């Protein structure tokens, strides 16, 4: 059983910063890509940032230059540093991990953490 545990969400003023963390625990044999998605009520979940096993990254245009994704493979952890936040960044943020446990390649999701940007 693999679980993703997210932390770091909360309420922040416009222009502020938050750092999200996601730890993958359980019977993990290997991890490929790791990413962050976000979803606003009534809208589709969208990719925010992705990092490959080799460290290559890609970002949504709306967060480019403000958000930074990183990973600590030894700790099965992915981070999302979010700077210069604005109200449009308000959403539930979900961690996403592609990897293998005891079977074929699988995608796991975290439970989501709320980020609210408001004055």
Could you describe the 3D structure shown?
The structure is a single chain. The chain is mainly β. Helix content is 0%, strand content 57%. The strands form 2 sheets. Strands 2, 4, 5, 6, 9, 10 and 11 form a 7-stranded mixed sheet that branches. The radius of gyration is 14 Å and the shape is globular. The relative contact order is 0.33. The mean pLDDT is 96.
List keywords for this structure.
single chain; 119 residues; mainly beta; seven-stranded mixed β-sheet
Write the layout of secondary structure elements.
Elements: E1 2-7, E2 10-12, E3 18-26, E4 30-39, E5 46-51, E6 57-59, E7 67-72, E8 77-82, E9 91-100, E10 106-109, E11 113-117
Parallel strand pairs: 2-11
Antiparallel strand pairs: 1-3, 3-8, 4-5, 4-9, 5-6, 7-8, 9-10, 9-11
Q: For the residues shown, what is the average pLDDT?
A: 96
**What portion of residues is helical?**
under 10%
Shape: globular
Q: What Rg is obtained from the alpha carbons, in whole angstroms?
A: 14 Å
- Class computed from helices, strands and strand pairing: mainly beta
Distance between the termini: 40 Å
Helices and strands, in order, run as EEEEEEEEEEE
pLDDT below 50 for ≥5 consecutive residues: which ranges?
Answer: none
Strand content: over 45%
Short description:
It contains no helices and eleven strands.
